[in-house]
Each structure stands twice: as structure tokens, then as C-alpha cells.
Amino acid sequence: MDPDWDEVNRLPPPPLPPPGAGPNHDVQRPPTAMAFDNAQELLWVGTGGGRVTSYIGRDLQRYTAFRVQPTLDGPIRQFLFTDKGVIVLGTRTIHMAMRRGPTLWSLRHDDFKDLKCMCFTSKGTNEILVAGWQDTMFVIDVNKGEIVKRVPSNPHCYMILKKSRFIVAASKNGYVNILDPTSFTLVKTWQAHAAYINDMDAQGEFIVTCGASLKQQVQQAAQTFMLDPYVNVFDLKNMTSMKPVPFPPLAAHVRMHPRMMTTCIVTSQHGQVHVVDLMNPNTTNLRYANITYVKMFEIAPSGEALVIADGESSIHLWGSPSKIHFTDLAMAVEMPDPETKAPDMDWSPDTPLSSIGMHYYRDALFSAWPADILSDVSSRPAQRDINISSLKQTEWGYYGAKPKGTRRNQVEEPRKDKASEFLHPPKFLSEKARESALTSGLSAAAEIRAESDVDVPSGGELDSLKPDAPATYRNLEIKYSKFGVDDFDFGFYNKTNYAGLENHIANSYANSLLQLMHYTPLLRNMALQHAASACTTDPCLLCEMGYVFDMLQKAEGSGSTCHATNMFKSLSNVPQAGPLGLLEEEASGRPLAIMVQNLSRFLLDRIGLEYRSLPPASTTLEQSVFGLTQSPTPDELIAKLLATSATMTIKCVACKNEQQRPGTTFLHDLLYPAPKPTPRVTKTPRTTFSQLLRMGVERETSNKGWCSRCQRYQHLQMRKIIHSVPAVLAINTAISTIEHRKLWVTPGWLPEEIGVIVDQGQFFCFEGQDLKLHLQRGMHNITVYSLVGMVVNVDTSAPLKPHLVSIINVAHSEPTPPPESRWHLFNDFAVRPISTAEAFTFNAAWKTPSVLLYQLKTANNKSTTDWKTNLDTSILYQDLTSVLENRTCKVLEVDQEMPNDQTIVALDTEFVALKQPEIQMNADGERETIRPVSHALARVSVVRGSGEDEGQAFIDDYVQIREPIVDYLTKFSGIEAPDLNPQLTKHNLVSLKTVYKKLWVLLNLGCKFLGHGLKQDFRVINMQVPRAQVIDTIELFYRKERFRKLSLAFLAWVLLKEEVQLRTHDSIEDARTALKLYRKFQEFQDAGILESMLEEVYKQGRATNFKRQQAQDEVALHRMDTPPVPVPQETAAAAGPTTPLRKTGAAGGMLLGSASGGGGFGSVPGFTTTPGRGSPSQSR
């Protein structure tokens, strides 16, 4: 009750009968039954004379009135409500009427002697059970109004029936009987009160009763009855009695609060009202109604209204004047049509027939054609302005180029609104760069914005309310040019600072789930902390998730994208992934919603398993969230972060044998109520998300299974005893029927915040006003969760494919909490902000959630980067080379060479092809790339960029590839089949995880990567490197106005006078060459001649078609393999040069610089270059 609750209205007592009136006089009698309607704003009152009256709203305006039974038959006992009408129980009559008053059926029988109560059965609103002070109970079919079954009730006579999970019956001798709702057999009996039960209510798991006991007065030695000063409470779930709730004013009436599952309202006969929490009976909310004698009271289904009947037959309506209402989502009350007098007409020959009104009809008119015989016809095509002068004339007419927009064998659909149906793919970046350079006044960025403004639909209506999925929710396709995927304009689809994920790789349906986990701070921190540890397990999905999350964090600027290729490769290498249907190639036809739900369960289980394998790099964040003083163990962290600790109890119905086993889980499936037999069901009780979550967590089910004591299959009852809840609550929605979808489309049904209380093994969930009330009371240790986001299933009709997107509140992952929520729609690489209303609006036709993630509200905006300071770097100093004579690199020295943010390393990689490109000819006769070539990393070489060993490699790893290789690209990579064969290779062959971790450690130590054309290297490596950590020589020696980037071989030939890549490529050689070019760039920059030298380089390139020229006296040279690094020995000799030197001056002055300078490059002799800044050669 709110503090402003007070009496809002009052119905006066009925008038007294006139003098001499007999017992059959039709006069309004005192009320004997009251009930609030659960579908409309109506209050129903039954009187002692067998009449029923209804009143509308807080004003208690009289609505309908009708008689149920003769006056002499007695009073009205009870009301029940269905979607069709109201069921009224009299002493000898059962009557069903529409809410407007007309009778649907009325049942009267000789066996109806003294009926007292009724309730619904297991068939819902289609069947009721009627009982009274007689030896027979009756089962009534509500749809037919007939008795379908008789059930003997001897020796019990019932005065109150309530329907919960069982049928709860109060007998007239003080017992509470639990009846099976299907067979009506007796399940359990309690002695509630010594004499009789005055009132009883049941809801959910609880039964509350108040009654009287037999008292004996010593002086008069007479027996009297006195109300008990307490309320008895019984637990239906555990079938036990609970501690009574004390009520010193003597409890007369009791009701459970319809919205607060553990709260009851108790009244005394003199107007004292207590609002009591059953879980904490010592704290109550006391109110007092100025009423001399409380005869009965009822509470509305909304919990916002209370009606009390006093001893003077007045009816008092209580509630908050500002928000009193009877039921949530109430249907409009149908009011009678006002009588309108027909207008007088002056009939004459000139009166038009159209002024004569048509008669009323009930059947469909013949002119109302069914929709299946109607068809839409096309309209005229849009006219085009054609310039006749541009056409060419022939003997049969004129012809010209077809206007762009459709293919030559297609015509336009004139009725179709293209702008609202599809997002047209933008132009390629290469096309925009070329056009922007040729067009003045319009930059490429401005053109992107212009195209975006045209193609992206706008409007006030929510996209989720549209009948079909709009373009922003549909599956988007990446287009390819001859430059590959990097030429695609991802910025057209993403104007935010949040990176998307590319969807052109296998198993990319999981992109939405990865995005959701990334923006859950606790999950993201777990993955990064584990990736920063010394884990080298392959495959390790938690490490791969950490790498993906790190990429998403490092992605810079709007339109940035990443791809989870390595993550999905590792997923396909897990043996359990295929049988579980988590791989697209092995789950043909399986719905994506089921796949992502199975994947979420699988990933959470793997996280729990792999996180325990090694202690995390740091637990600072977890200690601050949970208030821990000491660093917890991995098992303790998993229990607090992910695990819902529970015990599963299994009980045999036949022998009552009970067993227990661990029931801890990382993810919960929502459990929906059992479907009703007919689609027309009552709206009460209202199903909330909190109820479904509680059912899903406790998982109380009944199945047939093997009983070890009975030694046969029996019905087993299973339920969970909950001990604790985690910081991250993962939920699968488990939507499978249209009834489930209808629940989700209810406005405001999914709460943005929930509160959870775990008490005595039970799980209680609250939302909305209930949550606010519990937080205000502060009586329980309530855990509040915030909704981070959800994975949403988008169903589209053919030919479009179903799709998954994620809707995420990125505000929870920001370092500082923003003033309001920031909901974003992540559709693979397309990211856009959406409103809160759009995020929480679902559509039964195409938009339903699949996975939800809730996180502790106190963990929002918690982030840490201490995993970088605790980064395990031991892998950089491990010498994994098995054969000493084949070493091509020298690992870093632990004490002397410690990489940091000032360290420069030269990088080069080699690839092999896993799939050949798919190319087709389009309708215009042009080559169109359907899917580009798929590369895999085959070799990685990293060279020192400074120090005494500058130019010497410290990483030279060949990568073991599990996928079939279609082309080793030996001409460009130098890789041959034996190099990647574990049995035949002579090189250091390692897993992809090992070489990736080395590069990832260097990246997070702040090292700067130097190379030539690193963009493609980073894409194949699957690594996101910030621009500040990239030194790319292809960009250093590039002039945008020249429209051409220079190759490494050409730059080496012109600037260094060296021949590289003569027969094939070698990654160490290319990395060293890039390092030399960088030193040459620094030399030009220091001398202030960079621009002039670049102009001269391009000039020579145009003269030689950007290819090296062989001099007449030059001998053909062959490139040698990378020489092995000698084993450290006192007598070891230095290795020879890798690249042969070109003769100086052979090109007749076309070559720049001089090769006659002395001094080697680092410790590898034979390199000739001008020492740059920071080079040790400057001091020699």
C-alpha cells in the first residue's frame, strides 16, 4: 500500500424493506459476495437475495444487474471470470452470463443442496469444480453448462476452494485439504485451526488461512469460539507448514497480494489492515480503516484497489487516488448504444434514394468478396527522360544504352518502394577515391554521407512494428571488387564508434552472440585476463574470445570492422561442436535461434572449463565488484561470475524415495506455462517475465524415469534448490509456439531491470513496481540485474534467409556511465543506434529474442586494463626450434631485450590459398567476384628493428594448417607442401595459436609493427592493430595524386640498389628490406628531401613501368633461402648475405643513393644501407 491510500468511494447500504414486506419481496439485500473482474474495470457484488450487480471503475457507476436464483434460495456465494463472461455461484444454482447481462446458461439441479464454493480445474477456464456442505462435488463443463462428473467428498464438506498449483479446499472443521487438480484425489491434509476456517487464499507456492479455536470460559463453563491471533502459512512446493504470521488484533480475513508473490494482506473485524511479507513476518505495514465491523474484503488483480463490506452493508473502495485501477491491460467496457430518433423525412418524387439509410444486417453481403480472389494489378512504369539526340539511328529505328538500375532481362516493379525495402550497396572505395579525385567540391566522405541519407529509410514509426523485417534487420551481403573485401565500404553501414563483425566467413551466425558477450564487462574481462595468461592450449575458445574482444576494443573510427576467423576455426576444431549442431556446414536446416541458444550454452560451459585451467592475470575487477579482500581462486570466480549454484532433488511419486544431485548450471531456459486446451484463454493470472524466469531457474517438472527403489519406471518429480545466483545471468528464451511469441510482443513485457532474492532454497524474481517496492523496504538482500542486451532472431520470407542480430545497451560497458541508455543494433558489420522503444518492441511475425544477458547492476561500467600490465610474455623467450641446424631466428634475450612501446619490429607473412575465388559474368558482360580467394597464414617472420642485433629475426614460425590447401602459392610465398607437413618439414612448425599469441603479446606491449603492405597481413593474421602502432612503407612512399602504390621489390631496386623477390618471396628478407626502406625514409626526412625523392622515384617508375630493369652487363642472380642463424659457439662464423648486391651505377644514374657505404646491418653482414635514427650503425 502506498502512503496515500484512502477511501476513494463508497456504496451506501440498501434501503430497508417497506413495512409488511414478506420474505419474497424483491428488495436489495446486504452483500454476501464481492469480486473484481480480471478483464474489465468492473466490481461485481452479489446479495443475499440472489441478485448480482456490477459497477464501473472508481466512480462505481452501476453497469448491469440480473437475478441468479429466487430470493428464498439464499445468497450469492462466489464469482469466477472467463473471457466469455462471469460465473456466479448461488446456494442451489450455477449461472453464467455475459458481462453485459444476457444469460449464457443457468444450471439448477436437485442435488444442489447447499453449495458454498467453486474453482477452476486443470483444464483452465473450461471446467470448474463446485463443492459445499454436502457429500458430493460436481465438475461442470463451462462451455456447455453441464455436469460432466460427480466426485464424492465424504467425510469432508468444503466451504472455500482456491486454485493454485493444486486445488486447495478448506473444510468446515478447520482442515486444509490439497486435492489433485485432475483426479480430485486427496494429496495432503493439514489441521489449520481447531474449530473452523474463516477465510483462506492460495497463490503460487503459498496458502494462508485464518480461523477460530474453541475457547472455554472458566466461570461459566461454556464453550465459545474465538478468532486466532495469527495467520497460518503453508508451503505448497515443499508440502510443509511454515511459521505462522502473528496478528494480535485477531485475524478475520486474509488475501494474497496478486502481484507480490510473498505478500499477504490481513484484516481484523474492527478495521485494522496489515500488509505482511511472509518471508519476513516481523516487518509489517499497518493501516486502519474507520469501519466498525469488517464483513468481507477483496483486493483487485492489479493490487491497486481494495473493497471492504462493513456490518452496515456499505461497500468501501480503497486505493491511491492517483493510480487506482482494477486490472492491468483492461478491455474497454461495452456500453449500450444511445437511442437515436430517426429523422423525419419529407418524401417526394425529388427525394434522392441515397438519403435513405440501409437496413442493418448480420450476414456478410454478397458484394464483400473474399480476399483470396482479389489480386493486385500493376501500374504504368515510371516515365524516363530520354535524350533523342544521344540515340543512334538505324533503318528500323533508334537504339541506345539501357538506363542503369536493372539488368537487361528485368523490369521494374512500379508499386514497390525501393527505398524502404533494401539498403543499396554503396560504391567501392576505389571507385569513390577515383571519382573524388576527378570531381571538385565533393569528397568521398561527403558522397558516403549523401548516399547514406538517400538509401537509409527514415520515419517516425518503429521498425519493429512493420509487418515485414525492414532492411536494417535483414541479412547484409558483402560485395567484392578485384581488390577484395578491403575495397568494400563498411563505413556506409556503420557511422558509430563501435566496430562490427564481417559475415562472409563460415559460422558467422555467432557474430551477434560474440558482440553481446563483448559488451558484458565481466565476460569481456574474463576472456582478456585468460588470454593474457600463459595459456597455450589449442584450441582454447576463451583465449580466442579474448582476442576477438581485444580486436573490437582496438578498432578505431566509424565504419571499422573485425572478423572472427580464428575464433570460428577453433570452434570447428573442438570435437563436440559438430555433434552438437554448432557448425553451419553440419547443421543444415536447423533454425538459427536453436543454434545460437545451443552455442551460448556450449560457450559458457567452455568458459567455465578453460578459465579453471590457469589462474587469471589479475582479479582486481572481481574483487571490487564482490568486495573481496583476497584474490579468489578460479573455481571461486566461476561460482560467483557464471554459476547458479543449485541442488536437483528427484522424488518418486510412488515410493516417495528422494535423491539429490548437483544442479549447478551456467544458463537457464525460460519455462512457459502449460498450453491451454483452447486458444481462448482468460487474461488472468497475468504471466510476467519474472514468473517464467523463476520457473526456468527452479525447473520443477514431472517426468517418467527409473526409480532405483521401485526397480521400474515411475513418475518422478524434479525440482531445484537454489543456493546462489551469479553475476552474469544468461537466459535462453526457448520460444517455440505462437503463444510464446504473443507474450513477448506485449508492450513493456521484458524488464530492463530485475531483482532476485534467494531464500531457503527458493528463487524469487521481481520487476517494475514490485522491484521498486522491495528496494524501498530494504528488508531482503536483493540482487539487482541490468539487461545488457539480447540476440534477436529475424524471420524473413523466401527468398531471404533467416538472420540473427544483437540489440545491446552499450552504455553498460562505457568507462563512465552516460546519462541515459545507448541501445544499438548490431547487424554483423552494420551498426546503428536505436531508441529504447525500438529495442524492447518485438514482432510475432519476424522479431523475437533468442538469448538474453543480464549483469549485476553494480558491475556496470566496471573495466580494467591491468591484464596488460600483468601480461605473460614468456612465450617470446621460449626457443621452440626442435632442430638446431635449421634455425633461422634467434629468440629474444630475457634480460637484455624486453619489448615496450618504443620497440619497432619488422613483420612479414606468407599465405597459402584454401579456396579459389568464385567469379561470374554478370548481365552486362563484366566479371563479378562472388567470393574472393580465401587465404590462411603459413609463415610469420618478425625481425628486430633496433639494437645490436637489428635486422635479425627473433620469430620465424611456419603454421600448421588443418584445412585442405588448394594452392601453396609458391611463386609468391615460397611455401611448398613439405614445409607444412609435420613429418617432412625442416622448419619450426607450430600451431596458429602459438604464433598468434606471440604477435598478440607484442601488440599489447605497445610495439610498433613495420612492414610493407601490412593491411593484408593483419587481415589474414586476424589482428586489429591501432594506426599508432603501424609503420607501413607502402604508405610512406605513396603519393595520392599518383594513383599507384609502389611494390617492395621496386623500392628496393630504386632506393637500396638491391634485388629482392627474384624467384620467390622470403618473409625474413622482405621484413629486413622494409626495415631498410624505413631507415632510408628517415634519412630523406632528416635531410628535408623527401618530397623531391618521391617525385624522382615516381619519375623512374613511369620510365620503367614500375619494374626493375636489368643492366646489359648484369649477371642473372638467383635468390637463396634464408640462411640459418648459427648456433651460439665461440668459433661460430657469421652467416653470408641473404640478398645479393646490385652493382652500383649500372643503371646509368637511374638508381638513387650509393651502395658504397661501409658498415653492415646489425650483426648480419652484407646489408648496405644508410644508418637511420636510433640505428647502432651510426655509432660505428
UniProtKB/TrEMBL annotation:
Cellular location(s): Cytoplasm
Record-linked CDD domains: PAN2_exo, Peptidase_C19P
GO terms assigned for molecular function: metal ion binding; nucleic acid binding; poly(A)-specific ribonuclease activity
Annotated catalysed reactions: Exonucleolytic cleavage of poly(A) to 5'-AMP
GO BP term, pick one: mRNA processing
Family to which this protein belongs: Belongs to the peptidase C19 family. PAN2 subfamily.
Record protein name field: PAN2-PAN3 deadenylation complex catalytic subunit PAN2
Organism this protein belongs to: Schizothecium vesticola
